[in-house]
Amino acid sequence: MLKAIEWLSFYDLTVTGTEQMLGDIAEIVQSGDERGNHMTVRFRLPSGLEIWGLPTENAYGGEWDLGPTWNYLVFDDKTFLVDTGKSGTARKLLEMTESAGVSSSGLDFVILSHGHEDHDGGLAEIVKTTRARVKAHWIYDRLIRFYPEHAPADHRKSFPATCWRCFMPESFSNRHCLLYQQERSRLTIEPISDEDSMLSQNTQIYHLPGHSPDAIAIIVNDEAIIVGDTVLPGITPIPSREDIFEDVREILKPHISVAQSVYGLRAYIRSLKQLREIGAKSPDLLILPAHRFFYNNHWNEINLKARIDELIDHHIERCADVLRILKQGPKTAKDITVEHFDEPLLKGFGIMMAENEIISHCELMAAAGDLIGINGGRYAATGTSNFEDLIRSV
Which residues have a Cβ under 8 Å from the Cβ of 216 and sit 6 or more positions away? Predict the structure, then answer.
C-alpha cells in the first residue's frame, strides 16, 4: 500500500557516468539484492574521511519502485546520519550503523535532506533509541507542526502543514499517515538557517528548495556531496507547486514572502543551477543520491554538470509538449496529464502524482505569459513560447 509517496517523475533519462569509477572507492561490506536493498557500502574519500551508504527498503507496493532510500553515515569530527528511511525501517538502519562501528549512543546528530516520509519516516524511532539531536532546515521545523487556526476548513485541520495539499483521500491519510505525522511533530529540531553553512569541521550545507521547500545538499570536505532527491540517476524529482505557498504563507513569514523562492519549478531550476556551478568547480565530487544509486545490479554514477543539463532540458521539453497540447484548445491539468503521459503510468495514484507535476509546469508557463487560467479550472495558450527563456534565465 502506498504511503506518503515520494514525488518522483515517471520518465527514465540518460545516466551519465563519471571518469571516477565508484568501484575504486566503494567497498561493499554487505551485499544486497539487484536494487541495492540490504547493502552496506563504505566510501573512502581521498582525505581519509569515510561515508557509509546504508540503504533501507522503500517499497510501497504496486508499480512504484524507486529502489531503497540511501541514508548516509558520515565520519567527520562529528559522526552523523543523513536521513532515516521510511516508517518501519529504523531498526534495520540502526543495525547497519552498528555494523559500521557506531553504537546507538555514538551518533552526534541526525540531519534530514528533506521532509518526505521515505527520508524521515524512521526519525522518531531513531531519536527514541539513540537520543541523538536532530538537525533540519528551519522550514522543515515549521511545516511539521500543527496549525489548526491556519489549516484548510476540512479534515486537514488534524494534520501538519506539510499535508494540507496532499492528494490522498481522508480515509487513507488517517489510516497510514497520522501516527507518523504526530510522532515527528513532537520532536525537537535544531533548525538550520540559510546562513548556517557549516555543519561540522569539513561539512558544508546548501539550501536547495524546489522538490521540497526544505531540501538541502551536504558537501563533505569538497570530495563528496549528498544530494538527497534534488538530483537522481535515471528518474527525475517532481517539483513542488507554487500554489502551496498560499496555504503556508502565515507559517513561513516573515522569512519567505514569494512562493517561487522555495516552491515550484522555478525554485527547483534555480537549485539545479546552483548545484551545476558546484559540479563545474569540483568535477571530481562523488555524488551520493537518495535513490537508484545501485540499481539493476550496477552503480549509477552521476556527472553533476551533465546530469543537471539533462534535467533542465527534460523540463523544457515537457513545457513544450504542454503548449502543443493546449494549441488544440483549453484543457484542465488532468486533460493535459492524460494526453502527455503514457496510460500505464497513470494507474492508481499515478494520475494524481502526474497531474501535480503538470501543474508545476503550468505555473512556470503562466509566469512566462505562455498560458492563462480560465473558467472551469482550465488552461489556455496565449500564443507565446517564452518558457525556455524564463528557464534559462532563472
Answer: 111, 113, 114, 137, 192, 205, 206, 207, 208, 228
What is the structure's pLDDT at 259? 97
**Whole-model pTM over 0.90:** yes
For 142-173, write each residue's pLDDT tens digit. 999 999 999 887 767 788 999 888 777 677 77
Q: Which residue ranges in the chain fall short of pLDDT 50? A: 1-20
Contact 129, 90 (CB under 8 A): yes
Q: What is the pLDDT of residue 11?
A: 42
Helix (H, G, I), strand (E, B), or coil: what is residue 177? coil
CA distances 251 to 138, 144, 178, 222, 255, Å, are 11, 11, 20, 34, 10
Q: Which domains does the chain have, with CATH numbers?
A: 22-304 (3.60.15.10), 316-393 (1.10.10)
Which residues lie across from 92 on neighbouring strands?
none
Phi/psi zone of residue 113: left (φ > 0), alpha (ψ -120 to 50 degrees), beta?
A: alpha
- Residue whose entry in the numeric block shows the C-alpha cell 534534488: 230
Residues 126 and 110: their CA atoms lie apart, in Å, by: 9
* C-beta of residue 203 within 8 angstroms of C-beta of residue 74: yes
In 114-243, which residue ranges form alpha helices assigned H by DSSP? 117-120, 123-130, 138-143, 170-176, 178-185
Question: Can you give the pLDDT at residue 4?
Answer: 30
Q: Residue 20: what pLDDT?
A: 47
